[in-house]
Amino acid sequence: MHRILIQLDTDPQPSVFDRVVAVDAGVEQLFSYGGVTPATVTPLVHGAIFTRGPADLKHTAIFVGGSDVPAGEALVKTIRKAFFGPMRVSVMMDSNGCNTTAAAAVRAAAKHIELKDARALVLGGTGPVGQRAALLLAGHGAFVTVGSRSRDKAAAVCEAIQSKLHNAQVEPVSGDDAAAAIADTQVVIAAGATGVQFLSADQWRSSPSLRVAIDLNAVPPAGLEGIDVMAKAAMQGPIACYGAIGVGGAKMKLHKRALQRLFEQNDVVLDTTEIYDLASELR
Hints:
- This protein is α/β, with parallel strands linked by helices.
- It has two domains: 4-97 and 250-281, Rossmann fold (3-Layer(aba) Sandwich); 101-247, NAD(P)-binding Rossmann-like Domain (Rossmann fold), CATH 3.40.50.
- Helices cover 40% and strands 20% of the residues.
- It has ten helices and twelve strands.
- It has helices at residues 16-24, 38-49, 69-82, 98-110, 128-139, 151-164, 176-180, 201-205, 244-262, 272-281, and strands at residues 4-9, 29-33, 60-65, 90-93, 119-123, 143-148, 169-174, 187-190, 212-215, 232-236, 239-242, 269-270.
- Strands 7-6-5-8-9-11-10 form a seven-stranded mixed sheet. Strands 2-1-3-4-12 form a five-stranded parallel sheet, sandwiched between helices.
- α4 packs across α5 and α4 (98-110) crosses α10.
- The longest helix has 19 residues, at 244-262.
- It is elongated.
């Protein structure tokens, strides 16, 4: 029986990137739909769950993507409501690569330092990847500073994390205070939009406590000046540095493994935490 992946994209055109990764992950049949909304998704879900018997539903899975992360989250919520009893299939949410990228970045940091009780700074922390990186770091017991141009938006992210993790140690920061926060930070992850440089090389290199610096911007200028896009655990003094492509190899491996995991049973839901757990299994 063929493994069928149903790609539900919130953008008008389904992502070519996600389609290529699905094929490379071993998906045998790929059905792609663009412009999917909560109002239109239920018939697509019913088409997935009513065409095979319960014992065979593990051979069908759903991938939710697109550039709009909140739209993807809303789609997953509606998809799960359409399931009942044994009539369900596994679902993965990775809109804009948010979960796989954040998981790969935090996993890279964990290879160098113990995250529990570490101080971490996430720049661009209100974006899709930044929010999830902050959540994962807080889940490991790190004290996380969420940086944004808007303190109110950073505060909202902190509140959202605390609603999921009641013991989360998170605080918002903005403007010049974000740059100053690097002074006593062990991990910094730059996850901002293209074209935004958060820190000069002198700023982050001068931190006496910094041990891991990760820049997830693949398009110049770098979010953290002086980190090559290809860097993978490249040492600059005591600091292990990662660029976007340096993290990207692990992200791609994780994306493929997550897709394969969908077909192991019919009731898997892969979101931020579950995808990170898969990242921890990879070498």
